[in-house]
User: Fold this.
Amino acid sequence: MRNIKIINDSWLFSKNAKSVPTALPADWTALNLPYTWNGKDGQDGGNDYYRGTCWFAKSIKADELPEGAVHYLQFDGVNSSCEVFWNGKSIAKHDGGYSTFRAQIKDTKDENLLCIAVDNSPNDRVYPQNADFTFYGGIYRDVIVIGVAKNHFDLDYYGAPGIMVTPKIKGNDAEIEIKTFIKDDDNCKVKYEIFADGEVIASCEKDGDDEAEFTIRNVHLWDGLKDPYLYTAKATLIENGEAIDEISTRFGCRSFSIDPEKGFILNGREYPLRGVSRHQDRPDIGNALLPEHHKEDIDLILEMGANTIRLAHYQHSQVFYDLCDEAGLVIWAEIPYISRHMSTGFDNTISQMKELVSQNYNHPSIVVWGLSNEITIAGASDPDLVRNHKKLNELCHEMDKTRLTTIASVTMCSIDSEYVHISDVLSYNHYFGWYGGTTDMNGPWFDDFHKKYPKKPIGLSEYGCEALNWHTSDPVQGDYTEEYQAYYHEELIKQIAERPYLWATHVWNMFDFAADARAEGGENGMNHKGLVTFDRKYKKDSYYAYQAWLSDKPMVHLCGKRYIDRVEDVTKVTVYSNCDEVELFANGVSVGKQTKGKYPFFYFDVKNEGETTLTVKAGDLEDTATIRKVDTPNEAYIMKEEGQVINWFEINTPDGYFSINDTIGDIMSTFRGKITMLKFVLMLKNTLSGNKKDGEENKSGMMAGFSVTPAMLKNIYGMAKGFTIKRVFSMIGNSFTKEQILELNAMLNKVKKPKK
Assistant:
């Protein structure tokens, strides 16, 4: 029978080796797997983390191998390309850092040297190459040795488990097809069994090439969070009456569809998918996670009340997919075909998609295969890009006739482009209210799409904004405060709730994650759009906004616990709760009761005098916080960006007049504001032209590689209106001096704001 052994312990590592060693090196570093060499430098900013080839080595004695006539090594995650050597001989190469692959061991000696050359350096053929996250190098998931008989269930096909289970719901019953793949058949037979709650409910024996078919009467459905019931299918390979290999998989019986008007439908009922996206990495260990880390992530997502996860932007651990099956979470699974299309990367998109589908076919939690993410940043009209997506779409349908395909498109991509309409369903990544525009632009954009393409299911695959431990009572776009993030998500929740046709919505992101190229918000190397901090220790206020909206479990949360020192005489206090009534107390005295309206958000005005203990009560639940009256703002609450040109206290903001802290849209709502902005645009144009390289020209009608259409111009202008001038300066970088910025601010200080 099949025997499995995990070999994560007692490896040696080198960043300096150049070739396969002939013996176990004495000067390499000892470590255990999982491991990434970018756990520190991939998270500290500067976009300078090590990307190159590193080596891993391990000695394996023959008697340490699990029993079996044939042996395979299984690698569950090696990023991003690697070559495997057994006793100095290359036995496998693999391109793709997030999927399982295997290599057969041959010519075994009494003592054997296993070496793996792992390479995460930039290239033009393996995805991802350009993306807003760190590409951690290393062997960051388990390495396993499998011992099997000469005849066995196939271990060579794209890292797949060797068994495919396809349930089809027919009324109250389910028809089950089970197919296995056998290496060196030699007239073997297969015994198939289906288990429910540990008991065999159906079985049969077939010739090796034949599929098994069963009917489960009165089937117990896999029904999302409510009842994620799982069956088990087991296949036993029989040779001359003896069982020689055995594999099993869990599966769920469910039906689903995606309707352009009603959204996602599970087992015949409307089931709006409202949830999050997830990156897998953590402080110091990067993506070298242990099972308990995956479990903690699932628990936090479930506690929030989400029922769906977009697993971005690559194949995740089988541990995590299993947990999603068990929890009843509905999953979007995708390959890392992201940001920049590479004409030389076609084969890699095909192989990564084959691995994704083959390895994850049996997971009932997965309902869509994602073809790509924001791949049109350089334009959507490239014929090769369109061809690549059509091939991927066809491949998914050939391999899996039960699931749909989807794409995560980016705001600037025209809704009329051919690429947008290749997949079965579609979602867009929009950041109106963060990267320009205003929060209220999100809903109308989807209404416009839905009106023009009423038969195309549309969803929201990314939306969010960044928040660190900065605080204010007057939050504005781009300030990175916890308060603006909370406001942003309150507004998005309202717009999503009004549009049931959105088949799925996924917050970007559940957790802060590392992106070593980033330098914003006051902490370099990180994307802080998470509802929960990178270390999973602190749930930001916006997390509780979703919990109040999505969770059925009674809860109450008092916002602003990290925002203690406040200068105003009367301060706004926000409470999130899914209870019918909340009451707020200040130092034991009731500020008032409020009953829940359309949305689970409550706002109170509280006198800010001395130190005040705030307590909110909702039924038997309560939560507390403290505020304190101060005369001057606490600078610890105000973002300080490394290398910023100008500090907040240097900006003059006279009452009733504009400043660079105001948005482009507000300034241009007045005649004098438009004149001032014209001067600003001319200054911007001249400065940026001066930064162009020799011989560089702007192509007419082109912007960032896109052909600019009127619809795109409307989107771009709409986004820009929401930017403050200061934010524009910060995004441009060091193109302007402090004196130039203050000069523009002085000009704006002479422009009166319109009376409200």
Q: What stands out?
A: The domain at 570-635 is CATH 2.60.40.10 (Immunoglobulin-like). The chain has five domains: 3-148, 163-251, 272-545, 570-635, 648-748. DSSP finds twelve helices and 47 strands in the chain. The longest strand covers residues 242-251.
